[in-house]
């Protein structure tokens, strides 16, 4: 069985606007300075806990564990509802539908916590495409540890897979799992593409089905 496993934030959806709003609501409630949208984008990738750690550092709060836990809980209260400003990247649904019609099994591997992951998948009608999902709290480990990605691969019962992501974290995860990656270049990546480098790169979702087809044709050859 051949599988395609996807990241979520920065790959399928652009969630940075809602993450930015939720973060600044917490900071405002705490009487702290807001952070810019550009700063927030740079904090995304390793889950909500790391995001809050980076926010705390940015506003001079240090790394107190109890304060982190409190602010993370406040952040999740603001963030866990229906996404209001998050959007799908252009062409995502068409590409997933084409991959489904081509007979590929699909899974999801994200560092986003399970509750907002499920809400986002349902909100955008993505849940029908993913047979298995690993969220940021499914296992003790999070990306770039390869465990969540290999967990999804085993759960799908696939003998080979292509990972689709957007960031340095995704590239590192795929490398650690010895799995090739197709990198969506319009997400949250900050490093030059040549420094990663992915097996494949694409800037629009209408290109992905052909990349997947070509990859597995070469694997089977």
Total strands = 8
CATH architecture of the largest domain: 3-Layer(aba) Sandwich
What coarse outline follows from CA principal-axis ratios?
Answer: elongated
Number of domains: 2
Please mark out the parts with pLDDT under 50 across 5 or more consecutive residues, or reply none: none
Give the strand content.
5-15%
Helix % is 40-55%
Give the structural class. alpha/beta
Output the number of helix runs: 9
Measured distance between first and last alpha carbons: 15 Å
Please state the average pLDDT score: 95
Write structural notes for this entry.
The chain is an alpha/beta fold. It folds into 2 domains: 2-14 and 87-220, Rossmann fold (3-Layer(aba) Sandwich), CATH 3.40.50; 16-79, Putative phosphatase, domain 2 (DNA polymerase, domain 1, Orthogonal Bundle). The chain has helices at residues 16-29, 37-43, 48-58, 65-79, 92-101, 114-123, 147-156, 168-176, 208-220; strands at 2-6, 13-14, 87-88, 105-109, 132-134, 160-165, 181-184, 200-202. Strands 5-4-1-6-7-8 form a 6-stranded parallel sheet, with helices on both faces. The chain has a two-stranded antiparallel sheet with strand order 2-3. α8 links the parallel β6 and β7. α3 packs across α4 (65-79). The longest helix is centred in the first third of the chain and has 15 residues, at 65-79. It is elongated, with a radius of gyration of 17 Å. The mean pLDDT is 95.
């Amino acid at each position: 069985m051949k599988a395609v496993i996807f990241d979520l934030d920065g790959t399928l959806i652009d969630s940075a606007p809602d993450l930015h709003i939720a973060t600044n609501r917490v900071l405002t409630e705490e009487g702290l300075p807001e952070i810019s949208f550009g700063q927030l984008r740079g904090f995304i990738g390793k889950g909500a806990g790391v995001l809050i750690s980076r926010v705390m550092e940015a506003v001079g709060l240090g790394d107190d564990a109890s304060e982190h836990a409190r602010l993370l809980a406040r952040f999740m209260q603001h963030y866990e509802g229906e996404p209001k400003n998050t959007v799908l990247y252009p062409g995502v649904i068409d590409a997933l539908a084409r991959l489904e019609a081509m007979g590929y099994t699909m899974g999801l591997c994200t560092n986003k916590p399970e509750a907002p992951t499920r809400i986002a998948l349902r909100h955008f009608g993505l849940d029908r495409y993913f047979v298995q999902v690993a969220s940021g709290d499914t296992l003790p480990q999070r990306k770039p540890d390869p465990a969540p990605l290999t967990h999804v691969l085993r759960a799908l019962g696939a003998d080979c897979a292509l990972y689709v992501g957007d960031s340095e974290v995704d590239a590192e995860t795929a490398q650690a799992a010895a799995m090739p990656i197709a990198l969506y270049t319009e997400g949250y990546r900050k490093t030059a593409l040549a420094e990663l480098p992915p097996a494949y790169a694409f800037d629009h979702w209408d290109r992905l089905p052909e990349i997947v087809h070509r990859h597995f044709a070469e694997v089977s050859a």
